Amino acid sequence: MINLAWPDSRHNWGKLLITGCGLGLLVGVTVSMAGVYRGMVEDAEVLIGGSGADLWVVEQHTLGPFAEASRIDDDLHRSIRQLPGVRRAINGSFQTLLIQRPGRSLRVLVAGVEVGVPGGLGQPPGLVAGRSLLRDRDELLADPGTGLQLGEVVPIRRKRFTVVGLTTRMVSPTGDPMLFVPFRDGQDLQFLPGNEAIARQRRRRDRPVERQALTNAVLVQLEPTARPELVAAEIERWLGLTAYTRPAMQAAMVGKLIEASARQIGLFLVILTLVTTTMIGFIVFTLTQGKLREIAVLKLIGMPSRLIAWMIVQQAVALGLFAFVLGTSLATVMAPRFPRHVVLQRRDLIAAAVVALASSSLASLVGVKAALGVDPAEAIQ
Amino acid sequence: MISSAPPPPQPERPAGIVVSGLRKTFGSGSAAVTALRDVQMRVEPGEVVGLVGPSGSGKSTLLKCLGAVLTPSGGHMELGGQLVFDGDHWLHPDLTRLRREQIGFIFQSPYLLPFLSVRDNVALLAMLLGRSNQEARAAADQLLADLDVAHRADAMPNRLSGGEQQRVAIARALINRPPILLADEPTAPLDSPRAMAVMDLLERLAGQMGTSVIVVTHDEKILPRLQRIYVVRDGVVGEGQRERVRDAPVRFRSRRLRNT
Ligand SMILES: Nc1ncnc2c1ncn2[C@@H]1O[C@H](COP(=O)(O)OP(=O)(O)OP(=O)(O)O)[C@@H](O)[C@H]1O
Ligand SMILES: [Mg+2]
């Protein structure tokens, strides 16, 4: 028996190709959106997990330091260090600001961390070039996404920093590239008033501005035997702060910051499914409608209905597959060119394949129903 | 004038088509339309008979019943020596298969599949009967050669002239050597010489293969080529004399005939 679906598709290649490409773009967009979401989750995991902190301590009842503002005294880490189970506790400042790059300004997240061993608490998990922060002033580690070069001098506010190292990919929960500076500098950037503010306050004869001894968060590393939940509870009870374990912090980031994207992508998936089903249904129906005469003749001369139905199903499913392959190829090719970090996961591709196949099979039923409804007697007039 | 023809000679082998007391009524109650009344027919193997009659007389209805796509309201039908309809039900369990194996169809338009080559259009039905693609295509080539269109076997149907397409359609109808061939206005779109050629072919192939052929036609030029003619009027089928019909083709000046 020869295959009828293929020659018929070849006969109608124009219509099918246009539909297939349209669907392919749609699949590509949706897969990319899912990839952006996965990228955000992955970035958040690097940001939280890569810091080496077992606990994040922030201002009471806030979801700091990324999702909400958090300010606590910068000497609280000493009290935290006294608690049983705590090995180290350091200050961490986090501030989003603009730096000037040739021809544009770039939004970055500046993390102020205590200078320490590479890969240690608060430090970026890895460097691709240069060294880690050694002096506690004026040095800077940059995410390669900033475009900064080793040895480059970067003016930020009133200060000038020298790039001493480039990190592996480190971005904020909103996708801005990160800079790491010594905590003192980070604190100054955030809490030391600018020249203008000082001058203004002097003119108004306010009380003199002084540097505030604040930090955004304390990063805590625990002894291997300590239970993070218990230590967090201790910190909250005795110091009037809020402490997040690493999973809680990750969940909070993904939940609060990325939730909206997840919902958006979910919605896109629903739209994709609906549009795919409708478009394939429509094209299959149109093609079948154009063949009713031939179908009546085929039935009259003795072709079993199931072979006719099979031809229509094959065509629809092939269209769905084509769209899937085109869409995922497009997404794969485009991923590195996206401004955001796109991570194409196997499970998302499988989900896209399932959606494409399920909706195309479903859509083919429209054509199958039309074909089965044809009365072979109509071939005789 | 058309008069009652003598009953056809009793053959040794079973007749191709035997119809008796066939009735068909559409709808019911006051809206009922009786399209066929008590039809008697007998077509021998190798015989080519015509079915003529004015519009709305019931020709297509009869062809649909014979083609097993319309269930009669009553009567009996034998196709290829096999009783297929008995009073009120079909005896064959799978009418699609019955059509595939026993009946060839030719239509006013060729209705070839536009996306298959001429060869595959013809071979398709042989493949449906379980023959290998290669075998089916070889058989198709043979038949196309018989019908003088072998040189177009690889072409797509829309590249063929109307006459060539109609010959391909005939090849498709005959590929499985069915005992029955039903043709609905097969010469309507053709000019006179082509129509004659098609009739020649039907006659020759029917003779060779022992096929019983029924040709529904309005086409007076082909009437002389038919061995016998059934005239349909208001659902009543009677045998007509060919010469008389040819003499007065337009109005079919026949009186109503009721055989038996
Ligand atoms: N499905 C149907 N439902 C109701 N009436 C029908 C149906 N099919 C045919 N008829 C009626 O049965 C009668 C015979 O119709 P049929 O189509 O057999 O005529 P015909 O001889 O083929 O005519 P023509 O030469 O115009 O094709 C007509 O009166 C027609 O209206
Ligand atoms: Mg008709």
Give your account of this protein's structure.
The complex is a heterodimer of chains A (381) and B (260). Chain A is of the alpha+beta class. In chain A, 50% of the residues lie in helices and 18% in strands. In chain A, strands 1, 3, 4, 5, 6, 7, 8, 9, 11 and 12 form a ten-stranded mixed β-sheet that branches. Chain A has a two-stranded antiparallel sheet with strand order 2-10. In chain A, helix 2 (13-49) packs antiparallel against helix 8 (259-289), helix 2 (13-49) runs antiparallel to helix 11 and helix 10 (305-334) runs antiparallel to helix 11 (346-372). The two termini of chain A are 30 Å apart. The longest helix of chain B is centred in the last third of the chain and has 18 residues, at 192-209. Chain B is built from seven helices and eleven strands. A six-stranded mixed β-sheet of chain B has the order 7-8-9-3-10-11. In chain B, strands 2-1-4-5-6 form a five-stranded antiparallel β-sheet, with helices on one face. At the A-B interface, helix 1 and helix 9 of A face helix 1, helix 2, strand 7 and helix 3 of B. Bound molecules: adenosine-5'-triphosphate (ATP) and magnesium ion. The site of magnesium ion (MG) has 2 residues of chain B, from helix 1.
Gap between N and C termini of chain A:
30 Å
Shape by Cα distribution of chain B: globular
Looking across the biggest beta sheet of chain B, what order are the strands in?
Answer: 7-8-9-3-10-11
| Content of β-strand of chain B | 15-25%
Q: Kindly state the number of beta strands of chain B.
A: 11
Number of helices of chain B: 7
